[in-house]
Amino acid sequence: MAVKKKIINRELSWLSFNERVLQEAIDPNVPLVERFRFLGIFSNNLDEFFKVRVATIKRMIDVEESTGIKNKEKPKKLLNAIQQKVILLQQKFEQTYQDLIAELAEQDIHMIREDHLNEEQSAYVRKFFQDEVLSVVTPVMLHNIKKFPHLIDKSIYLAIKLTSSDNGIEPEYAMIEIPSDEIGRFVVLPPSGSKQYIMLLDNVIRFCLDDIFGIFQYDQFEAYTIKLTRDAELDIDNDLSKSFLEIIDSSVSDRIKGQTVRFVYDSSMPEDLMEYLKEKLQLNEEDNLIPGGRYHNFKDYMNFTNLGGKHMVYNPTPPVPHPLIQPHRSILEVITKKDILLHFPFQKFDHYINLLREAAIDPDVKSVGITLYRVAKNSRVINALISAAMNGKKVTVIIELQARFDEKSNIFWARRLEEAGARVLFGLPGLKVHSKLSLITRKEGKKLERYATVGTGNFHEGTATLYADLTLMTHDPRITDEVQKVFNFFDATYKTFKYKHLLVSPLYMRNRLYNMIDIEIRNARAGKNAYILLKINSLVDRDMIKKLYQANAAGVRIKAIVRGICSLTPGVPGLSENIEVISIVDKFLEHARIFVFCNDHDEKYYISSADWMTRNLDHRIEVACPIFDPEIQKEIRDILEIQMRDNVKARIINESQDNHYREPSDTRKVQSQMELYQYYQKK
Fold first, then answer.
1. Cα dihedral sign, 518-523-527-530
2. Tell me, which fold does domain 503-682 have in CATH?
3. Using CA of residue 392, residue 398, residue 402, residue 406, what is the dihedral sign?
């Protein structure tokens, strides 16, 4: 069997993942407001998919057309397949939205349109518009301008057709950007008895179009929502006179001019207005023209208003403290005696912030180093680092300026850190720094002792409440000495170091993973027990997939939890019959990466920042860290076994990409995230 025919296209696999997100919006067992929020997540995901992946495919098409050199990926064919799948998902999305609106109405909460307002509501909406909206609305009369206005891809617009019952007055077109950032997308109207009402800002503006255009002789207004998505790739300027920070800052500013990769529009728009927009925006059928419903920018539904009480949202799962970390006790002292594994959001991210705060004020701490990829808007992590610098510690921050969509935030924090006296480095040319490391050096007697953290997710207290991630805190010199080598590498970028314990990409991780898979293959062929357990976000790299197929052929049993893209095809006789893959989508975003190798019953455990994608293994600085502590090894095994038993939120990944839920094998339902929360409560 040709292996290449059994590697699923990554873009189509990603769309299958986003369909799993949409399934959460459809699932009647998910609280109603959360289902609206999953619609928002689905929409936000799709926006980023077009900005990044579809934009890349369009660039490939441009290269083909300009050079005549054919690409083996067949980008035009792939773009067509993507568009067909997106249209199907959009139809399912629209039906789901209408179903949720109906369910909301059953709870006496009504999403009300502008043409359904009673007299009292009309007066309220008109006043709200005059007081809050009118001053921030900037209509553009399109026939009066020489250059069509530049549309921002994070915004939605009303394309408006103005006509008059007087046939002697020519129709006019206009454009209004909906100011949801300034006002919010959802307007709560006064209740009427037990009934509550929510109105979209779009419809508030529709209702008051006569207030906006009252100076003209038009008496009929039609408004249709449109949304444009642009290429989000940065075109890096190679001007040697600029610093890397200045180059990225300039490139981010230029992103708003990116090529159009998707145009979503209200499918009820009249043909003349649609043709006018296509002409002015220079759109054609290859620009992913996606017909939709009345509303767009559903990412705003990630913050959907809850008017229905506690039963409308998930039960709260406040993070529990780690049993070894106590108030008023030094965390460094605890780590000296024993490694600690933190599992967010089940356990407190505050433990990590408190470790940094302790290091900032401990007079014996000499230095703090950290790698930052994304941080929170009002980052307590950054505040602790600034405190450390102001307290005279040597603070070194490796901050990744090319973290997509976080470039501006990272530039801001880089400047703040430099102002506080921290030493800020910007990684290496051509290599994103994606590892999640921090290193504290402390003078103890006559020796310098090191304390390290190695994680699977960002040092971001915001996402730590939503993303399921692991962080190891350790004093073990086998790990801390090698973490120090990684930081030394940032200082001496052309000097390489050897690592006995850490798996560090781009130079060492791939080959070390191959070696451990080869050991499983040899053991399987020798009749010994051989297995691999994986938990990752994406499994895409072709050579890693071929290696797993090779292991399958030798009889190695492989179980994997892959949240997102999975280009490996499990369960194919003669190719992957020993490989089982599930995907879990639930309340929290599964984000941790775990690798376990049987190793002839001397198991090797790793947690990592790296997925099995070519970019992570060959083009980024990533770290996979061994777990030596037997108790933490058992905890990781417990995590995997609980998730492998999931029969509520686990979908089976297969060749057809149809996202079937795993059927319960017994009478007990296992929803792994809730089981894990109870697991940590008991600890």
1. negative
2. Endonuclease; Chain A (3.30.870)
3. negative
Neighbours of 527 (CB within 10 A): 8
Residue 52, C-beta contacts closer than 8 angstroms, at least 6 positions apart: 232, 233, 404
d(CA 214, CA 150): 25
Token digits for 445?
A: 């007697």
**Domain map (residue ranges) of the chain:** 3-303, 331-491, 503-682
- Look at residue 185 and give its three-state secondary structure: coil
| 403 pLDDT tier (thresholds 50, 70, 90) | low
Single out the catalytic residue among 110, 434, 460, 591. Answer: 434
- If you write DSSP's letter for every residue of 131-147 in order, what string do you get? IIIGGG---EEGGG-SS
Q: CA–CA separation, 306 vs 198, rounded Å? A: 10
User: In 3D, which of 535, 559, 560, 537 has the Cα closest to residue 636?
Assistant: 535
> Distance (Å, rounded) from C-alpha 129 to C-alpha 562?
47
Q: SS3 for 39-106, per residue? A: HHHHHHHHHHHHHHHHHHHHHHHHHHHHHCCCCCCCHHHHHHHHHHHHHHHHHHHHHHHHHHHHHHHH
Identical fold between 3-303 and 503-682? no
pLDDT value for 55: 81
Q: What pLDDT digit, counting tens, does each position of 202-261 carry?
A: 999 999 999 998 888 888 999 999 988 876 554 434 444 444 444 444 444 444 455 677
Residue carrying the six token digits 């705003």: 300
Residues with Cβ within 8 Å of 354's Cβ and at least 6 positions away in sequence, in order, are: 325, 331
Three-state secondary structure call for residue 606: strand
* Residue 317 CB partners (closer than 8 Å, separation 6+): 345, 346, 587, 674, 677
Chain centroid to CA 403:
12
Tell me the fold of 331-491. Endonuclease; Chain A (3.30.870)
* Residue 501 is among the residues annotated as catalytic for this protein: no
The predicted model scores a pTM of 0.89
With residue 671 as reference, give the H or E element that holds it.
none
Report the Cα 647 to chain-centroid distance in Å. 24
**CA–CA separation, 631 and 597 (whole Å):** 17
**Closest CA relative to residue 8, chosen from 653, 532, 555, 662:** 653
The β-bridge relationship of strands 593-597 and 589-590 is unpaired
Domain 3-303 in this protein, CATH class: alpha beta
- Quick one: pLDDT at residue 495? 75
Kind of pairing between the strands at 604-608 and 620-626: antiparallel
Residue 293: closest CA among 528, 5, 96, 44? 96
> CA-to-CA distance for 123 and 573, rounded, in angstroms?
67
Helix (H) or strand (E) run with residue 382 in it: helix 380-390
Q: Please state, in angstroms and as integers, the Cα–Cα distance from residue 432 to each residue in 59, 239, 540, following that order.
A: 22, 20, 18
Q: How large is the average pLDDT for residues 497-511? A: 95
